Amino acid sequence: MNILGIDPGKCKFGAALVSDAGAILFRCVKRFQINQNADESAVFNLIYAPLHEIMSEICSSHAIDAIALGDKTASKDYLNAISLIIKKNEKFGRISLNMVDESHTTEAARALYHKNNPPFFLIRWLPHTMLPVFCDVDDYAAVAIALKFIKLSLKKA
């Protein structure tokens, strides 16, 4: 079972495909520019296109069994866009869409980042909470959301 985790945001989002064993199969961060006077449909279109592109790209090499969407920033717009993508495309028809509490995912994302990109030289002796991160970790936040969904699914079973 593969879970597509999505960490929604106002001007960027992270996406990651995670297997139920916890392996990261795909991850990326997509940015977009929103004008201050943009209406809801413009915002929806800015979100829809990159989401559709990512889902299509992933489906060409992996199966998506469920989508775990973070429930905080701009999640309503993402929920509407993903619902429309699933409805319009037959290849996405069997994907379940789930909202996941995204509290503490930024801390988990930083830890995942440092696990996959170990610090070097003297900074490796610093505690993980003090280590600097020099890039966006929205993709790792999406991994954390997917892992949280997997953990919740295992508890229910």
Question: Can I get a quick summary?
Answer:
By secondary structure, the chain is an alpha/beta fold. The protein is built from 4 helices and 5 strands. It is 41% helix and 20% strand.
List strands and helices in order, with pairings.
Blueprint: E1 2-7, E2 12-19, E3 24-31, H1 40-59, E4 66-70, H2 75-88, E5 96-100, H3 105-116, H4 138-156
Parallel strand pairs: 1-4, 4-5
Antiparallel strand pairs: 1-2, 2-3
Helix pairs in contact: 1-2, 3-4
Care to describe what's here?
The protein is α/β, with parallel strands linked by helices and 157 residues long. α1 (40-59) crosses α2 and α3 (105-116) crosses α4. It contains 4 helices and 5 strands; from the N terminus they run βββαβαβαα. The radius of gyration is 16 Å and the shape is globular. The mean pLDDT is 89. The two termini are 14 Å apart. β1 (2-7) and β2 (12-19) form a beta hairpin. The longest helix is centred in the first third of the chain and has 20 residues, at 40-59. The chain has helices spanning 40-59, 75-88, 105-116, 138-156, and strands at 2-7, 12-19, 24-31, 66-70, 96-100.
Features:
4 helices, 157 residues, single chain, Nucleotidyltransferase, domain 5, alpha/beta, 5-stranded mixed sheet
CATH topology: Nucleotidyltransferase, domain 5
The tally of strands reads 5
- Determine the structural class based on helices, strands and strand pairing: alpha/beta
How large a portion of the residues is in β-strands, by DSSP E? 15-25%
**Low-pLDDT segments, ≥5 res:** none
Secondary structure tally, helices: 4
CATH superfamily placement = YqgF/RNase H-like domain
Integer average pLDDT: 89
Sheet having the most strands = 5 strands, mixed
- Summed up, the domain count is 1
User: Any idea of the CATH class?
Assistant: Alpha Beta
Task: Give me the Rg, rounded.
Answer: 16 Å
